[in-house]
Amino acid sequence: xxxxxLEASARERVQAVCDEGSFQEILKPSDRISSPHMALxxxxxxxxxxxxxxxxxxxxxxxxxxxxxxxxLGGAIGEVHGAKMTALIAKAVKxxxxxxxxxxxxxxxxxxxxxxxxIAVSEIMRAVCAARAxxxxxxxxxxxxAGCFGGTGLIARCCDVLIMSEEGxxxxxxxxxxxxxxxxxxxxxxxxxxxxxxxxxxxRYVMGDIQALxxxxxxxFRNAALAALDSGKVGFDLENLExxxxxxxxxxxxxxxxxxxxxIWQRLGLPSAEELxxxxxxxxxRATSVARDVARGAQ
Amino acid sequence: MSMTNTAWRQGQQSKAARLGRASHLVGGNSGKVVKxxxxxxxxxxxxxxxxxxxxxxxxxKQADFLAQCLAKVNxxxxxxxxxxxxxxxxxxxxxxxxxxxxxxxxxxxxGPQGARLANLVAAGKIKINAIHTYLELFxxxxxxxxxxxxxxxxxxxxxxxxxxxxxxTEDTPAIVEAAxxxxxxxxxxxxxxxxxxxxxxxxxxxxxFVIHAPRPNYIEPLFTRDPAQISEIQVLMAMMVIKGIYAxxxxxxxxxxxxxxxxxxxxxxxxxxxxxxxxxKICTNWALNPHPALIPAIEAGFVQSVHSFGSELGMExxxxxxxDVFFTGNDGSMxxxxxxxxxxxxxxxxxxxxxxLQIDTYGNSSTATKGRIAxxxxxxxxxxxxRGRRHESEAWVKAGREAQAxxxxxPRGRKLVVQMVExxxxxxxxxxxxxxxxxxxxxxxxxxxxxVMIFGDDVTHIVTEEGIANLLLCRSEEEREQxxxxxxxxxxxxxARDKKKVEELRARGVIKRAEDLGIARRDAxxxxxxxxxxxxxxxxxxxxxxxxxxxxxx
Amino acid sequence: MSMEQLKxxxxxxxxxxxxxxxxxxxTASGNCEVLLEKGEDTAHCSVxxxxxxxxxxxxxxxxxxxxxxxxxxxxxxxxIHDVGATPAVVSLRLDQAIEAWENQHGQ
Lengths: 299, 554, 107
Prior knowledge:
The complex is a heterotrimer of chains A (299), B (554) and C (107). Chain A has 299 residues and is an alpha/beta fold. Chain A contains 13 helices and seven strands. In chain A, strands 1-2-3-4-5-6-7 form a seven-stranded mixed β-sheet, sandwiched between helices. In chain A, strand 3, helix 3 and strand 4 (99-104) form a beta-alpha-beta unit. The model of chain A has no long low-confidence stretch (mean pLDDT 95). Chain B has helices spanning 10-22, 39-46, 64-70, 91-98, 114-122, 134-141, 172-180, 232-249, 260-275, 295-299, 316-320, 338-348, 379-382, 394-403, 438-444, 477-485, 492-495, 499-507, 534-540, and strands at 26-27, 33-34, 52-55, 81-88, 102-110, 127-131, 149-157, 163-164, 185-193, 209-212, 253-256, 285-287, 305-307, 351-354, 358-359, 365-366, 416-420, 461-464, 467-470, 511-512. In chain B, strands 1, 2, 3, 4, 5, 6, 7, 8, 9 and 10 form a ten-stranded mixed β-sheet that branches. In chain B, strands 13-12-11-14-17-18-19-20 form an eight-stranded mixed β-sheet, sandwiched between helices. In chain B, strand 17 (416-420), helix 15 (438-444) and strand 18 form a beta-alpha-beta unit. Chain B is globular and about 75 Å long. The mean pLDDT of chain B is 95. By secondary structure, chain C is an alpha+beta fold. Chain C has one domain (4-103): Ribosomal Protein S5, domain 2, CATH 3.30.230. Chain C has two helices and five strands, in the order ββββαβα. In chain C, strands 1-4-5-3-2 form a five-stranded mixed β-sheet, covered by helices on one side. In chain C, strand 2 (22-25) and strand 3 form a beta hairpin. The longest helix of chain C has 16 residues, at 87-102. The model of chain C has no long low-confidence stretch (mean pLDDT 94). The A-C interface holds A 9, 11, 28-30, 42-48, 69, 71-72 and C 1-3, 20-21, 23, 26-28, 31, 33, 35, 37, 50, 52, 79, 81-83.
């Protein structure tokens, strides 16, 4: 199987991250729970509507897992795709697994399905919050080519722990949207270096939006997920919320006038953007640990 | 006193007159420097109607400022020019015909301007005299197409007018030699004027006018292929080539036509090639542009030497750090030379491999398509048997033996010419056709014969995802046709195969499937690539490779 | 863009059928997803295709004929969602599906 997380399909990622052979799919492809909307529009459908869900173990501990297939319609969330995720998370409240693993790769709402997709996103967010309120840990993995954007970006930030590779991207508004609304002077969506500087895993790590940065290897993601599981961290209380708000206030205070991540890194006294870009994940984590604390207002 | 018979010195007199008309425009120590803003005036002074003008449009380097200025001359004064050009690359090149500044052209290749060219031909605004392969065109600069004026690009000039052309020397030596030694005028745009040059690529007395252009000359990155786009099927084909051809014939000296297929081969050498114990036995000496995809093979010790036609944007530091491999000057930077590299590719290489758009049942291939006039570039030169060759090598002798049908005939060696193509291209367009589009294009291009890139009788092997067809072992036209159909997959050409004949050919080893080579499809994964992303290539180079921004996400 | 529906029934040597359904590939441009399940008729493999690339029925027939000949697919049912995959990719997916089917625990 491919070692690269980026190149692996959703199904391959589930097999590689969870304990070997432990995955049991819920709502199998042969059940043919696919999108009625795409069929009506005479567009190609996927047997699983682009998301695979089920039960597995991670380090022997029972988990529920969902993985989005970024190659099917950019992993975008439609009605059925969304309902599968919501139902899985609702199941977590009943079955109380150690954690829910969400492997994100999605551009957000599936435009073909419009409001159904939008509603699905909010239902998933509500379900995540409800489950976390019951003490269930949510671990998100982001490292696919389509990134984690739009409504899916919002869902991701509802997780307790987020693990990314530098190839992964996490944001709400997509680059093209920002350019369309604010103009190319403000944000040139074809400047790929800019896009990754602003929404890529490395910047997200420095800003404190994610908890772990790993190499583009399925093993590295698995190990980080195991470590997250061990910490058992569930931060769904008022104290945590206030800490997050404080972090955001600090961020605005320190960097509100910055126009590019490069400026932020400069202010934090980090090495040059070029140097940071070429650092493997573990070296990057070491090189930025102090700056990261400053950025999060933890210093 | 010898007769100063003016009939024999017309070239010298013409040159003197042209220089005289421009004398008020020059300055500087060398008396050759012309201000950028006076370039149009210069061109109007020295170029005469009907002149043969060689405008340096190389594969990569473009004398773009000079092209822009030429497009601004007064067509009343400068018109009916005969353009000589390796590559028609810029909109300014085709604009010359729109404006009536130029009327005819001899060239080799046109990339993005292919459609414009076709339109100009249809509108009767351009006469294409001939389309050449590069070495052919250079050769004609010394026979019947000597330039009156050469407009070239260089990195830098010194105060005397010596030029440094650096890694992207490319076609400049061939152009300048022809012009300078036949009373031609040589005008150069440089990126800078310096006190001293790292080295002298063109001596000052071959240069007439030096212009410090407002912007550095444009260089197109043409030979960079992102490993992320290589598919599993291309990996499979690359494995077949390495095991079924390179290892089989002991191919040490070769040229790769650019493409994702050949990039896959380059990236499989340090992994699959290593597994097969082939280091030092294949792919040691190359006539090749500095492909970033070759970096892992170089680092792994597969590659002993690379001579290049041109450079490649972003590779400069890496090349300079590997002078054992690349042809570099005492100054440390590479010197490419398209003319010499083409000669090397023709005579000193045992194999050429490349891809194409269409192949017919004779093995003829063409990239000519309706609505575009793309030309040939360097491929016909490499992808042709070198009949003048005499020195022997293992691969050359073996191929020659395989081709020899009648033992009574004089034995001769044979260059391996391999066409590598997936049976279907994008949008399910078949690569194999009964009749090349080229037949229908001869007329619209003003040619007697269809524009063929590589002729079937030069092709020795065809590689597709279905296997390898060894045409050397075919003993009749019919066998050859079935061998080709036998690897043409599910295209109409492939489906029209005589199944029984194809089975016989397979039994004889004329056709080899992946399984016959001991290659399992399940092993053909992207994991076998020594680098899977551009960043991997940068890391493999120790940070020396500096990809252009379009290939980066950092 | 409307999809073309194609249906084939191919004679093939019998395959083990006590296996779970297998899915390979993804519904994406240049690719296809292939669902392999237990079928009705032990002497045949039934194939249902939904494709966005219209007009290639003959090629599908040829590809599937060769597949049914080189692999044991009798007693199986295949459903494909295709978005313009080349015959090379389709053949690869079919072979991958059979391999995954055969390699399930209990083989």
